[in-house]
Fold these 4 entries.
Entry 1:
Amino acid sequence: MNALRIGETSSVARTQSADLWHVIRLCCAVLLLALTVLPAISRAQMQQHAKPPGLDPAPESAVSAILAAFDRYEVVGMPEAHGLKDVDDFILSLIRNPAFSEKVNDIAVECGNSLYQPVLDRYMAGEDVPFKEVQKVWRNTTQMMCGWSGFFEQFFPLVRAINQKLPLGKRLRVLAGDPPVDWDRVKDYDDRWKFGDREASIASVMGKEVLSKHRKALMLFGTFHLFHGQENSSPSAVSIYERDYPNLTFVISELGVFDTDLPALSSSAFARWPSPSLARAKGTWLGALELGRFIPNPMSIDNDCNVHRVEFPKSLQKPMEDLVDAFLYLGPQDLRLNEQLPADIALDIDYRMELARREALPETSGVTPEMLKGNREWNAEIVNSASTPLFVVPDMKGVVQNCLDRKNRSRPQ
């Protein structure tokens, strides 16, 4: 979802724009995390619809199928680090497989600020780079979720460790796909919009560093960046570079909210599938389903906390087999686990101060280290999250209540 450019200069307009930024960020987060919300009964009703025509999907061993895909394709793209621990754990097991470095040269990541590519290259080469400097790669992107991600806290050190076990010619290069943002220079609201086009940035990195050099790469990005066939006003990164490099990318999607809220595990369409599995989409009833069966239409919330249904662009209103090549199955959909917030992030007061500053732009956050240290409510949320580790599609009522609470706190007394 592309950011809107807002050029108002009056204080009223800037206040409205700041509120709109909260709405935009909420919508983007919902899309990226595949946490688009519908009432549970609506999702259950969708599952009961008759299957469309098509063959039954044929599950294959996921790791073997992905490694085999590199024999035919230059790039394999799949989602990562958007809150699903099962997906993250699968990726870590994939890259640890000894055959992976035999097939792949590069790993391109969404959570990587390309400003720090030289630092990242030195770190991955085994040089003595302070970890605080390396953390800027994923903590200083345009996406807040990257800085909170426990997956990338593990991913980058793991790839470095893998490289130390490999000969020079086989070492993996990690490519940062996000635009080169220097947060030290982002001082006001207008600076937010100087981040550049994220899709164009990703496509440029892939074209210059991978495809033009005939290298093989694993792309780890939110699925909306990977969709085929988005040659419109808001194309995906893959669709942009496929204009020059067609038919070279194999796109994998996870299953989103499909097959959730079932009365029993045995009633799942995938009950007999091994885990993890990969199933091709083309020609199957699963591939014939539209995007809305996996990621229901998102909801936006306005300044008055009213909820509005948002239609997908026409280019996305099509069968999944036109958007992706395969589906990744990692076990029962209702038993997926959330990615937990690492302690080193929760306890890093300096970083939380910086995040508060970014959130508050164009104003100052008014947050002090003492406030963060004593923020019992926020700390309690982290502690309490341990009691609900399963991934659950959130209820829109909670989002509305958060909006109302925020409005009440900002209302003059």
Entry 2:
Amino acid sequence: MAKILEIRVIRARPGGSWAIVKVLTDQPGLWGIGSANDVHHGDTVTTAIEQVIGPRLVGLDAAQIEDIWQSVYTAAYWRNGSILNTALGAIDMALWDIKGKEAGLPLYQLLGGKCRDAVPCYGHASGRDLEALVDDVQRWLEEGFPVVRCQLGAYGGGGFLAADSVSRPIDGREMDSVFDDEAYLENVPKMFEFLRERLGFGPKLTHDVHEHLKPHNAVTLSKLLEPYRLYFLEDVLPPEQIDWFRLIRAQCTTPQAIGELFVNPHEYVPLISERLIDYIRVRVSKAGGITPCRKIAALCEFFGVQTAFQEGGDNDPVNQAAAMHLDLASTSFGIQEENQFSDAERDAFPGAAVLEGGYLYPNDSPGLGVDIDEVKAVALRRDSDPSGTAQDRRADGSVVRP
């Protein structure tokens, strides 16, 4: 069997946030790739792979995926952190890619074969006002997307007030706008009332709260949105407050989706096993790769929960391919977040999944089906602002999560 010869990272996109792991074997021409994407901690993840984890795996049998995953997971004693998960997830994807190439089969075949012909995705509609939002929703529907996410502008849209229109501390920090829970509770239900009046109940619509609300207001919003029959309400709570889902479940039937910040089984296992959520949205790389995510999908099947693996605009074609193969082979699949790439990015990742008419389509190449042109990938890298995620604040200056 093929032995691991070398593990290295190719950095692409602004800031090098696309960290693509390449696992080479002692078999000529046989390698696999995986995604260690981290828009804020690319250098940290790269160091963990190339200087800590990778050297320890050289010489091991590349076919022993489960054993490698378990040994890396526990090797550092402390575990379930985003950096370790991302590093381990990338290596795990690459090993599955190698196994598919050795078998001469696309990854979804190794996972049990197709349960569906293609992977339905949801689009991301937004608008500065309600009319613009309706137009954008209709655009996505006309393109064939079966589900559309609806936002008033950026995350928190509908909840922002002009900073000079509210009571604020004397000599408080400079801000153009502040986030207000009550404004959000007022405007988001009105948004869906407008959308249903204009579009009817045929279109499947979602909304992303992005954890902006205080927990008791998350319960209130879920109740207020119940008449509009959302496909799901996303991230109404932060990971630190997931116990509040019990109260939401007791109050209403609005479907709940969460998980893109989850890195620990203690976060998602209780929510699934107690049927407190309807869709789990972990990112494949952040959960630790294909090995744990196929187990998450199997767990969901027994409790009537569906997967909606997270993508987002910072994601790359390799992680997208990993999610797509899991989607194709899982009966607990619900919907996939769409992500689109430029011509230059697709050129650097030949074989990337095709998104057409609201559906993702794989090719029949062995493994993940996507490769990397290292020269073109590196050429995509640009310097970027190293600052973290933009943070909204309330009138008193306190940070709004995330």
Entry 3:
Amino acid sequence: MLKLRAATVVEILRVDGAGALADRAGEAGAGAGAAAAAEQRLVVELTSGERAGERRPAIADVGLVGRADVGDEVIVNVQALDLGLSSGGFDVVHVNLTRGLEWDGARAGNAMKLNYTSLQHAVAPVEGALLELPVERPVAVLALHGQLAGLAWSFAQSAPDGKLGYVQTEGGALAGGHSRTVRVLRERGLLAGHLTAGAAFGGEGEAITTAGALHHGLRNLGWDAAVCGPGPGIVGSPSRDDARSTLGHGGMVALDSAHVALALGCPTLLVARLSSGGRRTRHQGISHHTLTVLDLLLEPVTVALPAGMRSPVGADLRAGLGAVFGGAMPGRPALALDVERPVRITRHDWRRASIDLPAYAASGLADEAEGRRLTEDPLFFSAALAGGSALAELTEQERPRRQRTSKNDISADRLAGSDRVADL
């Protein structure tokens, strides 16, 4: 059930992606070269409910509810902040009663996102081109948004001329304007585009499906590779610390995204969730979330590990894992190695990839994930960097094949043209 309260805007802290405000107000589409959505960070004072008079942080998606000013009367959703969720430390503006009722921020189009909810809005889907298979351009699949910056930076170091696009899926924040990481990566040219798929919205292009987003980005926008994963924050159900696996976690969207990429004929890379500093045993070393996805996948994928690590897979998965992560380290216990069906984990293409953790640390990009800094959990960031290096390698491997396919298509077209001339 929605938990809504009346409030008054008392302060505008900042506007993220402010350049997009003019784009949305003056055009039926997103501005090029920057994240399409703008998000305001506000302070509101509740005027109804049991906490009336309390001042609280809030966010407003300008593309949905319009721009707020100090003194505006708003209705905010207080559910996440009241629950104390780690990824929901703010209220969300549901409607601006002062000026938002006149706001018309919908893009041209007649397909709905968030359909049959009070926030349904019209978009112009990117899907429309004929399906061309196989796509044959690589896709990296993330479990967490915190892996995005490291992967994009590492990809650019290994493939400086490569165009990498981002497809935001469900599993975390749905609003495309909520990610400061995406804005910074776009500004620095480390991402060539940002599409929001499924229930996610507010990117530079809207896709009804993840398949449609990947096909559009790789076929129509000319991306050399794509990275696919949830927005900031994550959805998760409570589970015991010693639970072997859980399906109630937003990171499980990686399973769906990987299957989509494989179905499109894309070389598919799963970015492993690794941790050397996580407080929960099931996420230390290789997270049980990654192992679960690798177990359930219908086809093998590529998995990258930072160079210098001994592979955690081999003839015996438990022995391989133990060789890398089994020993207790200062500040953390030994990794629980009770992994079922090891053969289904070892069937994947495990690769070592070179990384430069100090250079990334000096890049100025996001160096904190899940409340831990890079120095506190270097393995988490190393895994993302390894994913970027491996993705660049896959991109280079696919270039000759695509070029051969393109030449064959041209030759076929010329032959068909000759036949038509002869027929005439």
Entry 4:
Amino acid sequence: MGNYTRRTWLEKNIVFTAGAGAASAISSISAPRAEERAVQTSKKGNIKLAMVLHDDIIRMKISRQIGVNHAIIYMSETLSKINRDQYFDAFKKIKVYYEEAGLTIAGVEGHPVPAERIVLGLHGRDEEITNYCTALEAMGKVGIPMCCYNFMAGINWYRTRFDVPERGGALTSEFNYRDAEQQGLTEWGEISEEKIWDNITYFLERVIPVAEKAGVKMALHPDDPPISPLRGIGRIIVSAEAYRRVMNIVDSPVNGVTFCQANFRAMGEDIEAVAREFTEGGKNFFVHFRDISGKGEYFRETFHDNGPTDMARMLQIYNDCGFDGPIRPDHAPTLEGENEESRGYGMMGKVFAIGYMKGLMEGQDIPYQ
């Protein structure tokens, strides 16, 4: 067990899933202004503005046009189709591909390889863990420094509606626990929280030492929604205290957090206090910048400028507490003309969010890359 306390760790050649369509770009800061901002400030944060991308050349071009320099990518589908001995070449190719587009890969989101047996504790999980460790070693060798993963068994991030009107008729998602329970159990039946804790312990004890040696930070994402049980399945990453427990399972500098703001709000946590704790402690590796209205058993996604969280204050906290990593805008409403199936990942909402984030940071002299 670790010794954590609140005080002490204060293709071109690979197959990819195509992302959602295009949007008009907003004006970006010029390169000289960005460089000047990064060196002239005495602030100690190292924020890297990022976008989650899917090898979609239009999204990649728009990201560069609005001044985003860092990409978050998915690899599970790609690596599921090749042998372990090909993982390194796959990561090397995708890294070069993004670099040619002017983007630096700041991390992999989602498990880098299929991990259902790991999370559910099924026969065959040791093979998946071997694949996982090989993927982390390959990431380390090519210089991809972070893996954002989750431990949501049976159900990934989950909403009960995706057609709720937001400002001006944009469509957003909501979670209603009552509606979720009416859908009944999943194919996995009932799974206890204790079982999931056993499974994550088994996983962390085998994977974190490999990640540490490889120099890859493991950034655990909260359960979304952070409520347990959900349709009979125990959810464990539902509080700040759960994170403290996870980081005690294997005490390592690479065992840390994806600070998904809205999930911590849904938990009912004091998100400013928890953000300070994890960031000052060097455990906040990745930020999902989003907001919700409501919490617990009912909430809905909002535009980044239309929710209850003081978003400017959150960016100031990350910077002042020395955050060193990528921040990306997460779920945003679907705007007019976009594919309704984008479900939080349309491009127009992200373009708006990046502009909003830049404005908040420039207004507070917060540097970003």
